[in-house]
Design brief:
The chain is mostly loops and 107 residues long. The protein has a single domain, classed as E3 ubiquitin-protein ligase SopA (Pectate Lyase C-like), CATH 2.160.20.80. It has no helices and two strands. The chain has a two-stranded antiparallel ribbon with strand order 1-2. A hairpin with a 5-residue loop joins strand 1 and strand 2. The radius of gyration is 13 Å and the shape is globular.
C-alpha cells in the first residue's frame, strides 16, 4: 500500500508498507496534507500532527489517534468507527455530521 500526501507547503512524501500489519505513523507531521479518501484504517497515529489536514472521506476505522493534533482538520465524511481520539486536539476540526462531543469526566 502506498499513501501519497501533498501539503500546502509543497512538500510531498510517500509511505509504502508491505500491505500487511499496522501503519506506523506515530508522531509524523502531516500538517496541511491532502489525505482525502486515504485508507488509514488501523493506523498508529499517536501524537501525529494533522493540523489543517484534509481527511474528507478518509477511512480511519480503528485508527489510534491518541493525543493527535487534528486542529482545523477536515474530517467530514471520514469513517472514525472505533478510532481512539483520547486526548486528541480537535479544536476547530470539521467533524462528520451527527458527531456530538461528550465530556467523559463529567458526572
Amino acid at each position: 500500500m502506498n499513501i501519497r500526501a501533498n501539503s500546502d507547503k509543497g512538500r510531498a512524501f510517500r509511505w509504502g508498507g508491505s500491505g500487511s500489519g499496522v501503519m506506523r505513523l506515530r508522531g509524523v507531521d502531516l500538517s496541511g496534507a491532502d489525505l482525502r479518501e486515504a485508507n488509514l484504517s488501523g493506523a498508529n497515529l499517536v501524537d501525529a500532527i494533522l493540523r489543517n489536514a484534509d481527511l474528507m472521506g478518509a477511512d480511519l476505522c480503528g485508527a489510534n489517534l491518541l493525543a493527535a493534533d487534528l486542529s482545523d482538520a477536515i474530517l467530514r465524511e471520514a469513517n472514525l468507527s472505533g478510532a481512539d481520539l483520547s486526548s486528541a486536539n480537535l479544536s476547530n476540526a470539521k467533524m462528520p455530521k451527527g458527531w456530538v462531543f461528550v465530556d467523559s469526566d463529567s458526572d
